[in-house]
Amino acid sequence: MVKKIGPLDIYNYLPKTNCGECGEKTCMAFASQLIERAVKLEDCPTLMKPNFAGMYRHLEEMLAPSVKEVVIGVGDSAIKIGGEEVIFRHELTYFNQTAIALDVHDEMKDDELLERVKYVNDFRFKRIGEDLTLDLIAIRSTSNDPERFAQCVSKVSDEAKKPLVLCSWSPSVLEAGLQIVGDQRPLIYAATKDTWEEVGRLAVKYSCPVAAFADDDMAELKSVANALGSMGIEDIVLDPGSHVEGKYFSNTLGNFVASRRAAILNKDVGYPLLGIPATVWLSEEGVETAFKEVMIAATMIDKYADLIILHTPEIWALLPIITLRQNVYTDPRKPVAVDAGLRRFGDPDENSPVLMTTNFALTYYTVASDLESAGIDCYLLVIDTDGLGVQSSVAGGQLDAFKAKEAIKKSGIEDKLKHRKIIIPGFSARISGDLEMQSGWEVLVGPRDSSSIGEFIEKKWS
Amino acid sequence: MVKVVHHIKGRKYLYEHYRVGDKVKCDYIGPVGDRSYATKSTFAPHVSPHKIETELVFQKQLAPTFDLTKLRDMLEKVEELELENVDMIAGELEFVLPAVSAVKRVAVERAEYRDLDFEIPLADFPGQIGEVELGATKANGGTRKNVIKVGGEKTMPFYHFEARNPHKPVIAYDVFDTKINLAGPVRKHFEDVLEDPAEWAKRCVKKYDADMVTIHLISTDPAIKGTSAREAAKTVEDILQAVKVPIIIGGSGNPDKDPEVLEKAAEVAEGERCIINSASMNLDYKRVAKACLDHGHVVLSWTQLDINDQKTLNKHLLELGIKREDMIMDPTTAALGYGLEYSFSIMERIRLAALKGDKDLQMPISSGTTNAWGAREAWMKTPEWGDREKRGPLWEAVTALTLCLAGSDLFMMMNPTAVQLFEDTVESLCGFREVEPLDVKDWIGMR
Ligand code: B12
Ligand code: SF4
Q1: Which chain A positions have a beta carbon within 8 Å of B438's beta carbon?
Q2: Which segments in chain A show pLDDT lower than 50?
Q3: Binding site membership of A34 for ligand 2 (Cβ less than 6 Å)
Q4: Where in chain A is the domain with CATH 3.40.50.11600?
Q5: What is the pLDDT of residue B226?
C-alpha cells in the first residue's frame, strides 16, 4: 500500500518562510490546506518564483489526486470528473460529482434527436439553492456508418450546450465524429484490447480524453489503459463493463469497488470510472426497466462511478438520481448554511407577515421556494442556528426563545412594521410561549411543513 | 535541468527540460524576454535525438527511435541551448499555447500492449457482525413458521471478491395500530385495511409476501388516542395470530409512555423473539431492555445520527446483560434529499468500525426507510416532477438501496412497488438472480 501524504511531507517542499502571503499563518497551515484542497499551490507567491520551480513541480506530483481528474468538453460547460482522494466520503470529501449523460443515437429522427438535445441543455432542477443539471450527451452510432455518424454529430453539436461522448466500437466511425467535434474535447468511447492503438491515435491527434473498455476483466482493462498510457495519453476513463442483468450486476459493483480501492490504496490505474445504467434497456422495455435503471444509477453513484450514461429522460426517474448525487457529493466538512438575517419576499409593506426560519440551507431554500411559489409578500427572518434545521436545532438548543428574540431586535424589523406578530415553524411550537413573553410579540405557530404556509397565511393572517 | 530556447517561426520561446524518473519532461516557460512563469503548461514533445545538433523534430504522435540516455547525456552537458530551424510537424498551436493537452508526458517506451495483472487490495477485517435470529418456531417455543437471520457480515455489502456475507437484507412492512395519514401512493395499497391492523398485516404477508411485519403502536401516545398498554398488547396478540412471520413491535415514540407499552407487548409476545423497537437514550431504556431479557426478545438500540451516542447506548445495553446476538441498532434514517448523506456516512462509519473490530458496534443495522415518505418529492402532487406514483416508490427504494450499500441489514418499508424494486436489486447484488449473461458491448447499437 502507498503511504498517505501528510502535511509534513508537503511542508518539506514549501519555502518555510511563514510569510503569510498565502493567507495562512504558516507554511505548515498552508500544507494542511493543500491536502484538504482548500488552497492551490499557486496561492503561495514564493513558490511561483523561478528558483522554486523544481519544488513546485515536485509538490504538483505529490498532490496529484489518486484518481486522475479528467476534463471533458471545453469552455463553461466543460465537466470535470474523477480527482478523488478517498474511498469513503467521511474520510475527507468527494470532489467531483458523478457526471450524468443522456444518450441519443445516429438513427434517430431529426426532431426526436434535437428535442432530446434541447432537453439536456435546458434540464435544470433547483434544490437547496443549487441548480441540478444533466451534464453531457452521449451519441451512439447504431448505424455503424461513419458518414451517418458524422451527420448526427454535426446536428447535435450545432444544438448542444453540453460536452459530448462519441460512442462506437469502430475507430473509423469515431474518427468521422472527431472530424466534426474533435476540437471540443469530447470523450471518445471506447478503446478495447483490439482497437487501443487506432483509438489511442485518435485521442492523441485530437487531444481528447478516451474511455478504455474491457468486459468484466480488470486485468484486461488495466492493460488497455496502460497501452493507451504508453502512447502518452493521460486522460483516460475506465469502463469495466456495465453488467446490470441479474447476478452479473454484483460483478460490476465488485469491479467498481476494486478499481477505486486499487487507485487509492495502491495508486494503481487511477482513472475515473464510467458506468452505463442504460445497458438495462438491452433486455427489457417499459416502466419496469426505467425503475431498474434508476436503481442501477443509484448503486453506481453510491459506489464510485464518476460518469454515468442514462437512457431514461423521465423526470420522475431523474429526480431521485440527481438528488442522490447531490446528497452523496455534499462536503461533509461543512454544514450547508446560508447567511442569517432578514429577507424580503415579493414587495412587503408595514402590514405584511413576518416569518421565522433557520439558516440550514435545506430549510431556508425549502421555505424560500414555498414563499415564492405561494406569491406572498412578506419578511423572512433567518436565524443563525449553526446551519441546523428547525427540528434538529430545537432539539439541540441552537434555536430557543432568547435567540429568536435577539434576532428580532437585531434585524431592525420593528422599524419597518406597524404590527408585532410573527409566524414560527410548527416544529418550534415549544418556544412560542417563551418567545411571546420575552419579545412582547404575538407568536403564531405555523404549519409543520412550509408547503402549506400560503394557506395558513390566507386563513390566519389578518 | 536544461534551458532551451526554441526559435519557432521567427519568435523565441523558452523551455525547460528536466527529468522525472526515466522520463524527460519539457515545460513551456514563456516567450523569451518575458520571464513570468506560465506554470500549468507542461507538454511533451517527442524528440529525435540524432538530430539535436542541427534541428529538433517535434512530433506529437510518433515516438520513433528514441534513445533517452543519449539525449539526457547531451542535455546534461549544456546549460543553455539555442536551437534554430525547429521543424514542427504537428499541432503548432497546441505546442505554443498552453492548452489542456491529453498528451502530457513523454512516451518513453514504444506504444505497446502488455498483459498486466490486476491486484485487488483486499481489506483484512478482523471483526464480524453478530448474527441475530428473528422469530421463533414451535421448536424454540414460539409460533412463527420461520426464523429469519440477519447480520454475520465479514465485509462491506456485496464485496464478494473479499468474502461472502451470509444473509440477504430483510424487509419488514410497516403496519400502524390506528388509521394514519399516508401518502397517496402508499395509501392506495392499504386503503381498506387502515383501521384493522391484523388485516393490514395479513395484506402485507399474503399479497406482498412480506418477510416481516412491524406493528407500530402509535395510538398509545396520549397526544393521539392514549390507548392503554393493555389494549395495545391485545393488538400485538392479534397480529401474532394473523400472520406467522417474525414481527417487530414499535412504540409511539412518546418517551414516557413507551416503556410501559413495550413491556406489556413483550410480555404477551413471550417466546416469539420479536424485535422491540426501541430502547433509546431519551426514555427508560433499562425497562425496555429488561422486558427483552425477561421475555426472550431482540432489542433495537436507537440513536439519532450520532456514532458516539450509538456506541454508548449499545455499551449500556450490553452491560445490562443483553447479548450481542440479541441486539440490532438503528442510527436513524434521514430521507433521500433530507439528510440521507448523514445516515449514509454514519452507517458506513459504524460498519467499518465494527469490521475493524469495535465490539460495541458489531450489531446488524436497521433502517426506518419509511421516513423517505416525509420528503415532499416523494408524496407531493407536482406535475413538473412527474408522476408521483412512480416518483414516490423510487424515493423509498433509492433511500433503502443507498443505506443497504452503507451497511444496513433490515429495512422497515411501506410501498409494495418500492419493496419489490429494492428486493430485486438486492437479489441481483447478492448474486442470486440467475439470468443469461448479455454482451454489454451491444448497448451502443440499441435502437
Ligand atoms: C438531518 C438530521 C440531523 C442532522 C442535522 C442536519 C442539519 N444541518 O440540520 C444532525 C445529524 C446534525 C442531527 C442532529 C441531531 N438531531 Co436530528 N435529525 C435530522 C433529520 C434526519 C432530518 C432533519 C431535516 O433536515 N429535515 C429537513 C428540514 C428542511 O426540515 P426543517 O428544518 O424542520 O424545515 C421544515 C419545517 O420545519 C418547516 N419549516 C421550516 N421553517 C419554517 C418556517 C415557517 C414559518 C413554517 C410555517 C414552517 C417552516 O418546513 C420545512 C420543510 O418541511 C430528522 C429526522 C427526520 N427524518 O425528519 C432528525 C431529527 C430532527 N433530529 C432529532 C434530534 C433529537 C437530533 C439531536 C438532538 C440528536 C443527537 N444525536 O444529539 C441532534 C441535535 C444536534 C444539535 N442541534 O446540536 C429529532 C428531533 C426530535 C424532536 N422532535 O425534538 C429528529 C426529528 C429525529 C427523531 N425522529 O427523533 N440531526
Ligand atoms: S505564502 Fe508560501 S511561504 Fe508564505 S506562508 Fe504561505 S506557504 Fe509559506
Answers
A1: 243, 245, 248, 279, 282-283
A2: none
A3: no
A4: 341-460
A5: 95
Distance A59 CA to ligand 2 centre (A): 14
Residue A79 β-bridge partners: A72
Instruction: Answer yes or no: CATH 1.10.15.40 is held by domain A7-63.
Output: yes
- Asked if B226 and B220 touch (Cβ cutoff 8 Å), the reply is yes
A315·B386 Cβ contact <8 A: yes
Residues B413 and B426: their CA atoms lie apart, in Å, by 15
**B387 Cβ partners below 8 Å, 6+ apart?**
A316
CB contact under 8 A, A196 and B112: no
C-alpha cell at B109: 517506451
Contact A163, A186 (CB under 8 A): yes
Which ligand 2 atom is at minimum distance from the Cα of A17? Answer: 3
CB of A22 within 6 A of ligand 2: the answer is yes
User: Cα dist. A358→A188, A362, A393, A432, A450 in Å?
Assistant: 47, 10, 8, 15, 12
* Distances from the Cα of A302 to the Cα of A96, A147, B215, B281, B389, angstroms: 13, 39, 31, 31, 24
B126 touches B115 (CB < 8 A): no
Interchain proximity A279–B440, CB inside 8 Å:
yes
Which numeric CATH code is attached to A69-328? Answer: 3.20.20.20
Supply φ then ψ for residue B367, to 5 degrees: -125, 130
Look up residue B88 and give its three cell numbers: 514542427
Contact yes or no for A262 and B401 at CB 8 A: no
Cross-chain residue pair A316–B385, CB shorter than 8 Å: yes
For position B73, what pLDDT does the model report? 52
From chain B, the residues in CB contact with A302 under 8 A are 344, 401-402, 405-406
Residue of B nearest to A329 (CA): B341
Give the length of chain A: 462
Interface pTM (ipTM) of the complex? 0.86
**Which ligand is closest to the CA of B373, given by its number?**
1
Residue B146, pLDDT above cutoff 60: yes
The predicted-structure confidence for A49-62, as pLDDT tens digits, reads as follows 988 998 999 999 89
CATH number of this structure's domain A341-460, picked from the four choices 3.40.47.10, 3.40.50.1820, 3.40.50.11600, 3.30.420.40? 3.40.50.11600
CA distance B116 to chain A (A): 5
On whether the CB atoms of residues B416 and B189 are closer than 8 A, the answer is yes
A7-21, B99-113, B130-144: least confidently modelled range: B99-113
Residues carrying CATH 1.10.15.40, chain A:
7-63
CA–centroid distance, A391 to ligand 1, in Å, is 4
CB-ligand 2 contact for A19 (6 Å cutoff):
yes
Cβ–ligand 2 contact at A171 (below 6 Å): no
A261: left (phi over 0), alpha (psi -120 to 50) or beta: alpha
Q: What is the pTM of this model?
A: 0.83
Nearest Cβ partner of B398 from A234, A324, A362? A324
Distances (CA, A) of A46 to A18, A31, A116, A383: 11, 14, 50, 42
Domains along chain B with CATH numbers: 2-83 (no CATH), 131-441 (3.20.20.20)
Q: For residue B91, which residues of chain A lie inside 8 Å, CB to CB?
A: 207
Q: Name the minimum distance, in Å, from the CA of A219 to any CA of chain B.
A: 5
Query: Do B215 and B232 form a contact (C-beta atoms < 8 A)?
Result: no
Residue A10 contacts residue A24 (beta carbons within 8 Å) = no
pLDDT computed for residue B74 by the predictor = 52
Nearest to A207 among B39, B101, B345 (CB): B101
C-alpha distances in Å from residue B333, one per residue of A357, B283, B413:
23, 19, 12
Residues of A in contact with B348 (CB under 8 A): 88-90
Cβ-contact A65, A99 below 8 angstroms: no
